[in-house]
């Protein structure tokens, strides 16, 4: 069964290099359609490093739990310490999250405000995948 997820990725430690590495690692588990990446100011944390963020649609045969496990493994391979209880408040080499089924309006409502500008990049792809 093919699942189609709307996902986010972001990094503020070596963001360009880590985006390239994450994309390569993600290609092992399915096919991704990426929005353009945008630099944003950090949210809910204090740092001098801007984030590089993007949305992507991921088509895979992995269920949500298995996919999130793979996302966590990729984050760890790129240097994120997921065991640190404060990891969400620290600089990170990669953060990958599932917002939901890319064909559901609920998933699109989860898109952070700082990524609304890239939503139009992915809408035509969702339309193609829906047919």
Automatic annotation (TrEMBL):
One GO biological process term: tetrahydrofolate biosynthetic process
UniProt entry tagged with the keyword Signal: no
Keyword list, A-Z: ATP-binding, Folate biosynthesis, Kinase, Nucleotide-binding, Transferase
Sequence similarity: Belongs to the HPPK family.
The 7,8-dihydro-6-hydroxymethylpterin-pyrophosphokinase domain, residue ranges: 8-100
InterPro entries: Hppk, Hppk_sf
Gene3D superfamilies noted in UniProt: 7,8-Dihydro-6-hydroxymethylpterin-pyrophosphokinase HPPK
Function in brief: Catalyzes the transfer of pyrophosphate from adenosine triphosphate (ATP) to 6-hydroxymethyl-7,8-dihydropterin, an enzymatic step in folate biosynthesis pathway.
UniProt keyword annotation of Kinase present: yes
Pathway of action: Cofactor biosynthesis; tetrahydrofolate biosynthesis; 2-amino-4-hydroxy-6-hydroxymethyl-7,8-dihydropteridine diphosphate from 7,8-dihydroneopterin triphosphate: step 4/4
Gene Ontology MF: a single term: 2-amino-4-hydroxy-6-hydroxymethyldihydropteridine diphosphokinase activity
Species this protein is from: Pseudidiomarina indica
Enzyme type, top EC level: transferase
Designated name of the protein: 2-amino-4-hydroxy-6-hydroxymethyldihydropteridine pyrophosphokinase
E.C. number(s) listed in UniProt: 2.7.6.3
């Amino acid at each position: 069964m093919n699942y189609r997820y709307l996902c986010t990725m972001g990094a503020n430690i070596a963001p360009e290099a880590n985006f390239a590495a994450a994309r390569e690692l993600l290609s092992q588990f399915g096919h991704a359609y990426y929005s353009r990446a945008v630099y944003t100011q950090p949210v809910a944390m204090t740092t001098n490093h801007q984030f590089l963020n993007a949305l992507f649609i991921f088509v895979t045969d992995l269920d949500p739990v298995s996919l999130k496990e793979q996302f966590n493994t990729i984050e760890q391979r790129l240097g994120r310490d997921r065991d640190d209880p404060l990891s969400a408040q620290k600089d990170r080499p990669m953060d990958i999250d599932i917002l939901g089924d890319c064909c559901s309006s609920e998933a699109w409502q989860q898109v952070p405000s700082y990524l609304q500008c890239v939503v139009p990049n992915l809408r035509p792809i969702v339309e193609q995948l829906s047919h």
